[in-house]
Each structure stands twice: as C-alpha cells, then as structure tokens.
Prior knowledge:
The structure holds 2 protein chains of 2 kinds.
Chain A: E1 4-13, E2 16-26, E3 30-35, H1 42-49, E4 57-62, E5 65-66, H2 72-78, E6 80-82, H3 95-100, H4 111-116, H5 119-138, H6 154-167, E7 172-176, H7 184-201, E8 204-209, H8 212-218, E9 221-226, E10 229-234, H9 236-240, H10 243-255
Parallel strand pairs in A: 3-8, 3-9, 6-7, 7-8
Antiparallel strand pairs in A: 1-2, 1-4, 4-5, 9-10
Chain B: H1 15-36, H2 43-68, H3 76-92, H4 98-122, H5 126-145, H6 147-150, E1 156-157, E2 162-163, E3 166-167, H7 171-193, H8 196-206, H9 208-213, H10 218-244, E4 246-247, H11 254-267, H12 272-288, H13 296-310, H14 318-336
Antiparallel strand pairs in B: 1-4, 2-3
Helix pairs in contact in B: 2-7, 2-8, 2-10, 2-11, 2-12, 3-4, 3-5, 3-10, 4-5, 4-10, 8-10, 11-12
Amino acid sequence: MSYFVVERASVWFGGVHAVSDVSFRVPKGGIHGLIGPNGAGKTSLVNAISGMVSLSSGKCILDGREIQALPPHRIAEAGVGRTFQHAELFSDQSALTNVASGLFKHRGTTFFQDILGTPAKWRAESRVCDAADAMLRMFGIYGWRDCLVADLPFGIQKKVDLARALLTGSPFLMLDEPTSGMDEAEAQDVIGIARRIAREHGLTLLVIEHNMKVIMRLADRIHVLDHGELIAEGTPAELQTDPRVIEAYLGTAAHA
Amino acid sequence: MSDSAPIAVPAVSGAVPGKLARGLRVALLPIAIAVLLPPFLGSYYHFVASLALINVIIAVGLNLLTGNAGQISMCQASFMAIGAYTTSYLTTKVGLSYWLAMPSGGLLAALLGVALGFPALRFRGFYLAVVTLGFLEITQILVEQLPSITGGVRGISASRPYLFGSKLSNDLAFYYVVFAISLLGIWCAISLLRSPTGRAFDAIRSSEAAAQSLGMPLARTKIAAFVIAAFYAGIGGGLYASLVGFIDPLEFGVWTSIRHVVFIVVGGLGSVVGSIVGAVALTVLPELLRGFKEYNEFVFGSLLLLVLVLMPTGLVGLGPRVRSWLRRRADHMRDDK
C-alpha cells in the first residue's frame, strides 16, 4: 500500500493553474524525487501538501488519512515535515533556537509548566538544547550555534533549515531544494546525512530539485512535473532516457 | 502530538540549569539593592519604586506579546482598568479578600484578552493597532456607563489590603508586596521564553509559515500571548489601584497605553531585562526631571528621542556595546605597554 498519495491535486491562483490534476503515490521509506524546470509547480505542490496554500481540488492522503482539509499545524502534527526553498528561518534568532524549535511537536511540558518554570520544565529544556546541539554537530555547523541565522551564509542557513526539519521527526519529510547555495562537497555531505537519518528512522523523503545531477544520485524514484502537470515517473535510469523528460526538462535547462 | 519519536535526544547535560544559575547570580545585586535599600529611604521613594515595579509588571507582559509574539496592542491600559475595577469591586462590594480579588482582576483581564486575541487572527500591524484602540475606546465608555461599579467619571476609591491581620497602609510594606509579585512575573516571563511556548511566540513573529510547518498552532499561540499580556496588565491594575488609593478613569486612556509601548521600545523589544530597564527608567526619569519645571516634558521627550536614535535596539542593547568597548580599550592598553 502506498504511504503517501496525491490524488488529482490542482492548485489555481486566480486563472493560473500552478498545479493541474497531479496524481502520484509514494511507498513508505526511501528517497523520492520531485523534479521539473523552474515554474513547473513543484513548490506550489509542496505548499499545498503542507497546507500553506489550499488545494483547489484533489486529495492528499498520508498513511490512509486525508490531510488536505487540515490547518497547516495539524498537517505537521499528522507527520508531514518540510524545509523551504529559501530557508524560511526565524532570522533574528540563533541557529540553536531555530533548530530547537524543531522539537515543538515533541514538547514534554504543558503551557502552565512553561510559564511557572517548574523543575521538570527546565529538565525538558536541557534535553531540547542537547538534541539541538547534537543535530548542529551532525551537520558540522555547531560553530555557528549562537550566531543569528540572518548573518549566516545561505548554505549554512539551508543546513539549519534541514536540521530543524529533521528534528521534528516527521515520518514524511519534503525537502525543497536542500542543496541550493552549497558547493559540490557540502551538497554530498548534506545528502549523506539526510539519507542516513532517513534510513535509521524509517523516514520517507520527498526531495524537490531542479538540479538533475543531485536528484539522479539521491532518489530511488522520481516524479517529473512540467507546466503544473505530471509528465513522467520512474527510476533515475528510466527517466534519463525518457524522451518526454529530455524534451520538457533537459530541453528547457539546455536553453536556459 | 505525533506518535513518531524525536531524533537523537541524549541524556541531560545540565547546560540550561548552568546558564540559569549564571543569570540568577547577575540578578542577585539588583535584587539585594531592591530589598535592602528602601528601609533607608522616605515614603515618597517607596511610592515611586512601587509605581516603577507595577509598570515593570505591565511592560514584561506587553513585551511577551509585542516583542516576542509580534502582536501590537494599544490597549494595555484597558486591561489595567479591568484589573483595577474588578479588584476594587470585589473587595468593597463583595467583601472578598484582596489576595483573591486582585488575581481575579488579572483573570478577568485575561478572559477579555481572549476576546481581543480573535481579531488579532485576522488583522496585523497597523490594522491590529487600530482594533486595539477600538477596544480601548469601548472599555472607556463602559467605565463611564457603569457608575455603580466604576464610580463613573468621578472615579472610585480603593483601599490598601490587609496582610497577616495588619493593613498595608505603610508604603514600604506595600512596596515589598509589589516587589515580590513583580519578581514572580519576571521569573514566569524568563521561564516562558525558554520553553516550547516561548519559542512558538518568537517563531510566529519571525515566520508564520515556518512556525506552522513545525506544528505550532498560529491561532492558539497568538491568543495565548494576548491572554498573558492582559493578565499581567490586570494584575498591574489591581496593584495600582491599591497603591494610589483611588481609581481615576482618565488614567486608563490612550496616553497610558502609549507609555506602555514606549517602555518596551526604549527598554528593548523581546527582552525581559529590556522591559524592566525601560519601565524603571521611564517611571523614575520624570520624577528626576521635576527640577526642570515647565520644561520637564520637553527634556523627557528629547531624552526619549536621543535613546531611540542612538540605541535602535533599546537601552538593553547598550550592554553588549559597552562590554565590547571596554574590551577594545583593554586591548589598546595592553598594546600600548
């Protein structure tokens, strides 16, 4: 059975069809790619799945449960996590606070414990700090721990965003261009970490990319969007020779 | 709550308690001064200090709402009024103990904070400011229209509470009560900001989309911020009524609300220490400027402008700047040798 299903999803902005009638299925576990040239509707689809914009029609089903009508924070609670193309960080806060915010879903304290400052709250707070520190170390950005993220280079910001999303422990995680702003070695490194955590914790990753080289190495299976429509899907090897993909995707990339 | 386990949570390292302990050590000196100095001062100083601490309570609450959760409120004076009138009504008309009436005033203010939180879900920025000004107008009209509770435009007297059977008519004794309550309020704010709830406040100010993607509920978080700020202002109002001994409805107008905002902007948005510094400085300063007589407000306004122009992050931003200046000087001295 499919773990995550998008069924005939459409997103319209006024008269513009950003996503038209897209359906695909993602089995549990592994890394899945969602690719397409700029403006293909990838980010619109991710925004719709995570509830940031509402679907004009269609369904999103996670683990047998329809989630498209839920408010965004409920979708997150249901187990959908995401990162952002432009690393939507809490810019006036430290890297540590940003990553620690990722643990919100697993808060071990009530509102009244938070405000009264009970010993249990401070203990929980220590655990949150330690977990965030461990994540920062894993990404090799512990040195930036106390810096305001607005002052960090874009590549580091993307790592903070990814660390924060991974710490949510969301079983279905969408990564929007996770390696943009990084050089080849950094990108390799980050992909390695994401792959390892996904395997260890049985996460299902949907990686959005327009960089074909990155996604071909990373994904087990790839869905290709163009002009808001799903034009192909298959393994990286299959897609490399698919004429529709070469025409729609690589064609435009070559002209760009 | 999601059923998946969080990733990599090692054992407690004690990092947070360590930091907390350092913070408490720094706070020890001001606390010691606030406890030990007043007995050597006159009643006028006790009154001004109590006033300053009441403003601290209100400012700390408002800063959580505005500085952290990013929601503007121009009606904290309304919540003060609700706290003040509820306290006075429950003590004089119902005969309730002040120690129950005053928190009840805070709770009623918090309840109305929920009511104000809902429009905040739809409006932001200037629009929200205008909505809160509307709320301020409504409460002022209600105060005038309910003279049986509020005394109408003539106001109503309020009395000092009893503690352990003796009346706190002594300004010094009442000062210690206000001091203890303000310490509690400060502690709660510090604790809140280092908790999931506090991080949600900061998160929704910074990026609503990212906050929601982490499972933070937008509506509930905003309303919680309004409720907390209203509760702090309600408590402040209850204390204020007893301190002054009389509730004048004109006290709870737009000017008072603006002053609350000025406290936190001058002190430092999003900082508990900033709220304290701002409220104390701006309560004490007008008293110090009495010597300027008719130029009093002119000098006050000029100093305010200077602070805002020279210290855009508020008085609290001065700390790191002074520290780095001292460090640079020390380095120069070493180099010279």
